[in-house]
Amino acid sequence: MKKLFSTLMVITCLALAIPAQAQIKFGVKGGLNVSKLHLSEETFKSDNRTGFFIGPTAEFTLPLLGLGIDASAMYNQFGVDSEEGTSTKKSIEIPINLRWTVGFSSLIGAYVAVGPQFGFNVGDRWFNNVCEFKKNTTSFNVGAGLKLLGHLQVGANYNFALKDNGKIHSGDPDDLTTIGFKQNTWQVSVAYLF
Questions:
Q1: Residues 83-97 pLDDT 10s
Q2: At a CB cut-off of 8 Å and minimum separation 6, what does 112 contact?
Q3: CA 137/CA 99 separation, integer angstroms
Q4: pTM for this prediction
Q5: Where do the DSSP E strands lie in the chain?
């Protein structure tokens, strides 16, 4: 009984010590995104479009396990081209990723991350009275990167839409056709954590 009690005490102390060692860091993240719209009609040019994103970020890590969560609130924009002209889609994107980090030394580490991303349109919802962007979107991130010098992070991820990002309305007003489209994005980011 004494051994069981001692073992339970050690396990309890270790379980309480892990959260005490947890690290929370805040910083700024920004980068380049390359988006492609997936359409079933030729109303828009679905070629790759570049844009940028920037905003605050936070990271919570359990050092012993290398597991953690990162979250950001990013201002995001990219261009959209059609036969009638060019427009810019603007949104606030909130990615929340589960992250696993492996440290090779105190100066360098690598991580992989997965998680959902929630987007909120802050620009015009309509483009040339043909395309209607949704007010909010849901997508999923898969990414990897490097941690350098304890503060700098360089990463790349692929973000794919879980549902339509908007609708294209085409045809005569009497015979209107509505087609949904999805937006998938490659992102390259740099973050500095304090």
A1: 656 678 899 999 999
A2: 99, 100, 143, 144
A3: 22
A4: 0.81
A5: 23-38, 49-62, 67-72, 74-82, 85-103, 108-121, 126-127, 131-133, 136-148, 152-161, 166-170, 177-193
